[in-house]
Amino acid sequence: MTTIALSQEQQLALSNLCTNIQLWAKELGFQQIGISDADLSSETERLQQWLGKGYHGSMQWLEDRKKMRLNPELLHPGTRRIISVRMDYLPEGSQQIAILKSPEKAYVSRYALGRDYHKLMRKRLALIAEKIKQDAQAFIPELEISSRPFVDSAPVLERPIAEKAGLGWIGKHTLIINQHAGSWFFLGEIYTSLPLPVTEVITENKCGDCEACLKVCPTAAFPRPYELDARRCISYLTIENKGEIPEEFRTVMGNRVFGCDDCQAICPWNKYAKPTCEADFQPRHGLENSDLLTLFMWDEQTFLKNTEGSAIRRIGYELWQRNLAVGLGNAPANPDIVSALTSRLPQASELVAKHIQWALVQQKNPNRKRVRKLSRTRV
Predict the structure, then answer these.
(1) Closest by Cα among 311, 155, 330, 150 to 239
(2) Which of 205, 218, 332, 347 would bridge 373 by S-S if both were Cys, CB 3.0 to 4.6 A apart?
């Protein structure tokens, strides 16, 4: 990478540009930005160990593209700095705990209640990238400026990058926590060739002795603090996993049919979380408070219509039915549920049929035990 010697005037202009980036980001609905260098070599050993333990499950792309994750310049040639942003997504009055305690309701991870965040954030980050290019070319014409936005759709180590940029610290549940905003927010990045001043922030990990997030996990997905075994995580099981949900996890899944927020919901720092102001992140089609049975009875056309523009659509109708069948198996015994499961069985795919059959056994077993979570000693 060619090094450009900048004059004092150019360095001052870059500093002023950083101030403008902050203003642009705020105008576009981002709550915070930070700027870091592109050196992620300190993450190499941790990523290698995590992959070596097989904790990524069937997400083979994490292994295949690990070099790009660790070396931003391989993903976007010329990258000198990374602009990291966060955007709040928790809807007002989300009541996630109340839904989890209502076993006939369907719990959908709070990030997926509204429109898909990927396009919304990427479009806004692209606007910022273009503004940066136009501004910088005026005072550094000799430097070819290139930038590329990312939002959870490329081999990017977004959480270590966000921590390095001062947006928060990586908590024991492996998510970014901000002491003023909790963890209910999306992350996004802009890789840029522009040598912007890095954010002068020292992020202190303030989890202390608290292990609430580890203890509350229904499937004991955290072998130890700061380490997630995705193969046991309900978000992985209901979204990334394309096959059967292992029986050992079905009962403890409860009514969680798309993702899981337990480790966030219990985190003490989320008392500082602020509700989103984004209209697109507000719940649609009653998904924040729907009955399992109502959602299970959607036909595929209704599913496609009601999940248009939603992150839920990416799993497809078959996996949606699979997840809901497990939720219905965990619901209180109800003849209407038995009738609905039975009616769907003849036309169900082999995958869905296996989960419907399991659910029917659960519904018809009056002595079934309610297991709320697995023990971490099993990991």
Answers:
(1) 311
(2) 218
**152 given a catalytic annotation:** yes
Phi/psi of residue 36, nearest 5 degrees: -125, 165
Which position has the token pair 């901000």?
178
- Structure confidence by residue, pLDDT tens digits, 71-95: 999 999 999 999 999 999 999 987 8
Residues contacting 282, CB < 8 A, separation 6+:
91, 113, 114, 276
Name which of 336, 343, 334 is nearest 362 in CA terms. Answer: 334
The full 3-state SS of the chain, as one line of letters, equals CCCCCCCHHHHHHHHHHHHHHHHHHHHCCCCEEEEEECCCHHHHHHHHHHHHCCCCCCCCHHHHCHHHHHCHHHHCCCCCEEEEEEEECCCCCCCHHHHHCCCCECEECHHHCCCCHHHHHHHHHHHHHHHHHHHHHCCCCCCCCCEEEECCCCCCCHHHHHHHCCCCEECCCCCEEECCCECCEEEEEEEECCCCCCCCCCCCCCCCCCCHHHHHCCCCCCCECCECCHHHCHHHHHHHCCCCCCHHHHHHHCCEEECCCHHHHCCHHHHHCCCCCCHHHCCCCCHHHCEHHHHHCCCHHHHHHHCCCCHHHHHHHHHHHHHHHHHHHHCCCCHHHHHHHHHHCCCCCHHHHHHHHHHHHHHCCCCCCCCCCCCHHHC
Locate 143 and state its tokens.
């430097």
With a cut of 80, say whether residue 376 has pLDDT above it: no
The domains of the chain are located at: 212-275+282-369
Question: 315: which residues sit within 8 A by CB, 6+ positions away?
Answer: 238, 239, 258, 323
Which among 348, 302, 291 has a CA at the least distance from the CA of 321?
348
Token duo for residue 162: 């966000």
Average pLDDT score over the chain: 94
Report how far apart the first and last C-alpha atoms of the chain are (Å, whole number): 45
Q: How far apart are CA 307 and CA 48, in angstroms?
A: 36
pTM for the full model? Answer: 0.94
CA angle 105, 111, 114 (to 5 degrees): 80
* Residue of 152, 229, 261, 262 marked active site: 152
Task: Report the relative pairing of strands 147-150 and 169-170 from DSSP bridges.
Answer: unpaired
